[in-house]
Design a protein that fits this description.
The complex is a heterodimer. Chain A is of the alpha/beta class. In chain A, 41% of the residues lie in helices and 13% in strands. In chain A, strands 2-8-7-6-5-3-4 form a seven-stranded mixed beta sheet, sandwiched between helices. In chain A, helix 1 runs antiparallel to helix 8 and helix 2 runs parallel beside helix 8. Chain A is globular and about 70 Å long. Chain A starts with a strand and ends with a helix. Chain B is of the alpha+beta class. In chain B, a hairpin with a 7-residue loop joins strand 15 and strand 16. Chain B is globular and about 65 Å long. The chains are: A alpha/beta, B alpha+beta. At the A-B interface, helix 9 and helix 12 of A face strand 4 and helix 4 of B.
């Protein structure tokens, strides 16, 4: 039996159309778009077209689209452009590690960080935030938020947040749209945020390219200075091949989204049906109960009796690629901040597991995943009980 | 150091035979440290057709350090080396977090031993409770592996068949590298599941195999330090764990004060440096008493012992029965001198308390230190050096 990849939330396999287009560009020759010759002009035209396409899809103008290497870099670029060293940062414990690290660095440097509380399902608890003073004295404050949590699958009530934020006089909102971009339209203007970040890998495009899109008029302060590339906002030769791939992956994802989501939900439902009651296996479901509040193919659990890394390793042995959802390279025992903020105890917060189903899966994959998880769960729990 | 008459080349005792690893392919978990020995252990298992799963054990917070290429054994760089070896061999690789188990069975006892004036053997606890304890459990639960391999220089011996078989460790072919001393705490069940693929090789042979296989760790230097004390300064670890050094008396063998020390837990039996005494005949720490915060020193010959009280004495099959006498060659430190003698378990013994009687003296026996007794090439029993009297007496 072959491998079953269930970690699309960390990066989906590159879709064939994108791979084919990349191969075609490589064969035809694509290179440095900066130069006074036909070859550079050809690459420049490809880059411009990618930028135009992304601007149109994400609701801004082409000059406000800046390519970066990764989403972490894009978050750092946007946040660093808005947040003063002594400024107030509003964020949450459910953010991507790149964003959590930016918040930690800001706090360590003497800046103020406020966390929006989460409810049990990982949703921003705006009423609790209001009570605890999150929205008090927001003048000049910056918000750093993910529209959907990659770890918990929770799609956030952004419109409610934006309303409360604007009423309280908050400043720029930097929105991480990485997990949400594959689910449906993302329009910066309609969302009412200043910066929107989208990455290629979660769109079944190649790793190594992301984008900051900004509302007209917002300025970005470069982290890397260089020869004026990206209008002086990110130095270094533009990765034309990757930018083109991101534009194509985004277009295909958004065109397919209305069909994709119901299909992927059906696969995930099949997984649920085969798995049976997760609590009977000692797995507490994490994230939203209701499908409409959750990323389509997302399933996540917390096991209080095993480390998430151990569940992932045992599933890998069964041929399944899963994730803890808060991956840490060095295998630390640190509990997930997001699960702690949702009110899970420390043991459960160390036992996070995430499976993401995608459009390329079929019902048999969902059944196999559920059976493998049952087997692994029973084996590991049995071993714990035997100790 | 003389090893004549010791386990090396002495042959197996009556009835024992070498325990060969199974010919049939089996699924083996191999603990990769990022060093050359465990790399070659994995390579040999792969070459023999076994299904091999590589793991690197994260044992303590040193794992978060990147050591800039200095190549200590337990940092992220070591984990990276282990991963590269696994990749080269085409085997799965996982980081296994055993921090809690390591803290409970190695780190905490290490600290309390020093605070009690003893000399701990952390590698023994790590092998017994972590590598051939918790890791074996994880191997079975996560990967359905029955066998666990390491890059230790050791072999196995067996007597009898099937369910009633008895197991012992057997000294490695390379006498200079033999690590059975550190493995003595393994019980029969653990030895039966253990695989030591390099136990029949010399270090140069291991390096040669690593080079031939193109393993990235082939020329990596040895790590000799205690892995969680990478700078060799265990005193700073003790201070981190709440030790507040108090100055105390240094006395000679007659009990006469001869100087002052900066904190008893910072000294070990046999230590010569750091006593701050005037030059003359070399003096060595002969006893550390944490209750009186007093250190006793003596001449080199004052630290020689032919009779040593032991505790926790056991064979792979379990504790020795009261009234047993076990003859062989004893050693009180890794690669240390061997002395002929016997372990006597008195009829009234409790807690594995026993006496080690030696024909020739061994030097600097420190309470807490590991003692092993070889019968021929096999490790027949092991334990710890006891305090002269129980602490609570």
């Amino acid at each position: 039996m072959g491998r079953l990849f269930l970690d699309g939330a960390a990066g989906s396999p590159v879709r064939p159309e994108v791979a084919a287009r990349m191969a075609e560009l490589l064969r035809e020759g694509v290179g440095n778009p900066n130069g006074g010759h036909a070859e550079a002009r050809r690459s420049r035209a490809i880059l411009d077209a990618a930028r135009d396409s992304i601007a149109e899809r994400l609701g801004t103008i082409a000059p406000q689209v800046v390519f970066t290497g990764t989403a972490s870099e894009a978050l750092a670029l946007a946040l660093g452009s808005e947040l003063a060293a002594d400024g107030l940062l509003v964020t949450t414990a459910a953010e991507h590690r790149g964003a959590r690290a930016l918040a930690a660095r800001h706090a360590a440097a003497g800046g103020v960080v406020r966390l929006v509380p989460l409810d049990r399902e990982g949703r921003w608890d705006l009423a609790a935030a209001d009570r605890s003073g999150t929205f008090a004295n927001l003048s000049g404050a910056t918000a750093l938020l993910a529209l959907a949590s990659g770890e918990l699958g929770t799609v956030q009530p952004l419109a409610d947040f934006v309303r409360a934020w604007r009423t309280a006089g908050g400043g720029a909102i930097v929105l991480d749209g990485v997990q949400e971009a594959i689910e449906g339209p993302l329009d910066l203007a309609a969302l009412g945020v200043e910066h929107l970040i989208v990455g290629s890998a979660k769109l079944a495009g190649p790793v190594g390219i992301s984008v900051v899109t900004s509302a007209p008029g917002r300025q970005l302060r470069p982290i890397v200075v260089g020869g004026g590339q990206e209008r002086g906002r990110r130095g270094g030769t533009e990765a034309v091949l990757l930018a083109d791939a991101l534009a194509l992956a985004l277009r295909l994802a958004q065109e397919e989204a209305p069909r994709r989501c119901p299909a992927v939900r059906a696969i995930a439902d099949r997984f649920d049906a085969t798995l049976g009651d997760p609590l009977a296996l000692g797995l507490q479901p994490t994230g939203p109960r209701e499908a409409r509040d959750r990323l389509c193919g997302h399933r996540s659990f917390a096991a209080g009796w095993a480390l998430g890394d151990d569940l992932v390793a045992a599933l890998d042995h069964e041929g399944l690629a899963a994730s803890t959802g808060s991956a840490c390279l060095s295998g630390s025992r640190e509990p997930s901040e997001a699960l702690l903020a949702c009110g899970f105890d420390e043991a459960s917060a160390r036992g996070g597991l995430r499976l993401s189903f995608d459009a390329h899966h079929v019902a048999a994959d969902a059944e196999r995943a559920a059976q493998a998880l049952r087997r692994v769960g029973e084996r590991l729990r049995g071993a714990v009980a035997a100790r | 150091m003389s090893i004549a008459g010791g386990p090396h080349g002495a042959g197996l005792p009556e009835g024992w035979r070498p325990a060969a690893d199974p010919d049939q392919p089996e699924r083996v978990l191999v603990a990769l440290s990022g060093g050359v020995d465990s790399s070659v252990a994995a390579a040999l298992l792969v070459a023999a057709g076994h299904e091999v799963i590589g793991v690197w054990m994260r044992l303590h917070s040193a794992a978060d350090r990147v050591d800039g290429g200095r190549k200590s054994c337990c940092t992220l760089d070591a984990a990276d080396d282990a991963r590269r070896v696994a990749d080269r061999l085409g085997i799965p690789f996982h980081i296994q977090n055993l921090e809690r188990e390591f803290a409970e069975s190695v780190l905490d006892p290490f600290v309390s031993a020093y605070l009690d004036g003893e000399t701990p053997s952390p590698c023994v606890g790590c092998n017994t409770a972590v590598k051939f304890g918790a890791l074996v459990g994880k191997a079975a639960a996560l990967f359905e592996c029955d066998a666990v391999a390491t890059g230790h220089y050791a072999r196995r011996a067996v007597r009898g068949e099937g369910e009633s078989a008895e197991w012992r460790l057997r000294a490695a072919v390379d006498a200079e590298k033999d690590q059975t001393y550190f493995l003595h705490g393994l019980g029969a069940a653990a030895i039966a599941r253990a695989r030591f693929p390099i136990g029949g090789l010399t270090k140069p042979e291991v390096r040669e195999i690593a080079r031939a296989a193109g393993l990235p760790t082939a020329d990596k230097p040895e790590s000799q330090e205690i892995c969680f004390v990478p700078d060799g300064d265990y005193r700073s670890l003790l201070r981190d764990r709440g030790w507040v050094p108090q100055p105390g008396e240094i006395v000679d063998e007659r009990g006469e004060p001869v100087g002052e020390h900066g904190g008893a837990a910072g000294f070990t039996v046999g230590q010569r440096r750091g006593l701050g005494l005037a030059a003359g005949t070399p003096r060595y720490v002969s006893a550390v008493d944490p209750r009186t915060n007093r250190i006793t020193i003596g001449r080199r010959e004052d630290l020689e012992r032919t009779s040593i009280a032991l505790e926790g004495v056991a064979t792979p099959a379990g504790p020795l029965a009261p009234g047993t006498r076990l003859r062989g060659h004893a050693r009180i430190r890794h690669r240390g001198a061997l002395a002929e003698g016997w372990i006597d378990v008195p009829p009234s013994s409790a807690g594995g308390r026993a006496a080690l009687e030696l024909a020739t003296p061994l030097w600097a026996a420190s309470p807490g230190q590991t003692v092993v007794l070889y019968e021929g090439e096999t490790l027949a029993a092991g334990g710890r050096i006891a305090r002269p009297e129980p602490l609570d007496a």
